[in-house]
Design goal:
By secondary structure, the protein is α+β, with helices and mostly antiparallel strands. It has a single domain, classed as Fe-S cluster assembly (FSCA) (GMP Synthetase, Chain A, domain 3, 2-Layer Sandwich). Helices cover 39% and strands 21% of the residues. It has a 3-stranded mixed sheet with strand order 1-2-3. A hairpin with a 4-residue loop joins β1 and β2. The radius of gyration is 13 Å and the shape is globular. About 6% of the residues have low confidence. Pfam families: NifU (PF01106). GO terms for molecular function: iron ion binding; iron-sulfur cluster binding. It comes from Haloferax mediterranei (strain ATCC 33500 / DSM 1411 / JCM 8866 / NBRC 14739 / NCIMB 2177 / R-4). This is Nitrogen fixation protein NifU.
């Protein structure tokens, strides 16, 4: 599958299956696709940067996307920076380390 097709399918999956990102003022962007290995890097930002459930959203994307799209072998989810980033990333970074969120599976 070409990088363009993989990007289109990834974007479609995220738009249809994780609409909370955009509904809550966040955004996602496909930052990198390695069509040979099937590795995809997705950045989330905007309101996601300071959101308390961002770590759970990131974890869900990381684990569910390869299950849904067989061409994807690995997903890296990172926080987007730049002028659209919100201002409270340290709280969510701390939350990513908390055991309570290790196995949490959000309802999307």
């Amino acid at each position: 599958m070409s990088a363009e097709s993989l990007e289109r399918e990834t974007r479609s999956y995220l738009s249809n299956n994780v609409p909370q990102i955009q509904e809550h003022g966040g955004f996602f962007e496909i930052q990198d696709i390695d069509e040979e290995t099937g590795e995809v890097t997705v950045a989330i930002g905007g309101a996601c940067s300071g959101c308390g459930i961002a770590p759970m959203t990131m974890n869900a994307i990381k684990h569910r996307l390869p299950d849904e799209l067989e061409e994807i072998s690995k997903v890296n989810v990172i926080r987007a920076g730049g002028p659209r980033a919100a201002v409270m990333p340290t709280k969510t970074e701390d939350m990513e380390e908390m055991e309570e969120y290790e196995d949490y599976s959000p309802p999307f």
